[in-house]
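User: Could you write out the 3D structure of this protein bound to adenosine-5'-triphosphate? I've included everything you need below.
Assistant: Certainly. Input first, then the structure.
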Amino acid sequence: KSRAKRFDRGQPGVTFDDVAGLQNAKRDLREISDYLRDPQPYRKLGAKIPRGVLLMGPPGTGKTLLARAVAGEANVPFFSISASEFIEMFVGVGASRVRDMFQSAKKEAPSIIFIDEVDSIGRARGTGLGGGHDEREQTLNQILNEMDGFEPHEAVVVLAATNRPDVLDAALMRPGRFDRKVTLDLPDRKARQAILRIHAQNVPLAADVDLVRMAALTVGFSGADLANLVNEAALLAGRKGAGEVDMALMLEARDKVVLGGRREMLLSD
Ligand code: ATP
């Protein structure tokens, strides 16, 4: 596994407009991006902004996208790591990476830290599940120590994503840590339509493409599935030498995404 990417600064320019649906999540997170854009008025009011926010939702519902959008809205640097990377590392590497990342984020504050798949290190301790995994535990403890060690004036907000909130160690949710929760649901029909529209923006569509109908035919699809569908349709068009994507290709791509997901499920069972 590559160790070159300690954390990435994120693509600048992702904003809430790039995130379809998820109105409640966006409303909750706007408070954070407003604060990071200009912490001064909040400081004068003595307002305590949340240190850590847990983004909870099924795979592909836009947790990473939304975290990037908070940074983009606030126009602040975005530092990210995926907690699952630490699992196979030597003891001490995860903790030192966490330390480095928090140090950089504080140096460049206001800023955002994003920890993806936090459940892979943040599982409840002593459950027997990966119990006694030193690396995991040290990394988790380092995250908790760093969050407890923030000074009140340090404008760094830590966002963490998980699709397994049920297995998380309660220590993560204590006051001053990830004490704020934001839930992301699978998109409803209107949101699916909006997501399809966003991802079809740069794809030439034939006149017969009906995104309202596509939204109705994609119950249970995540945002990532829908992005994938549009891309598959464009690839199919390319392969057939067509200059645009028509409804038949959209439907073919839809089946492909459904079957792809089912295959993955069968393989992982
Ligand atoms: P995972 O749990 O698998 O890490 P995630 O919840 O972090 O997934 P993202 O990585 O943010 O999901 O989503 C993958 C891609 O799906 C995004 O980069 C984006 O292209 C698309 N997508 C997901 N949700 C949305 C949305 N609400 N609006 C627009 N695009 C979306």
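The radius of gyration is 20 Å.
User: Perfect, thank you.
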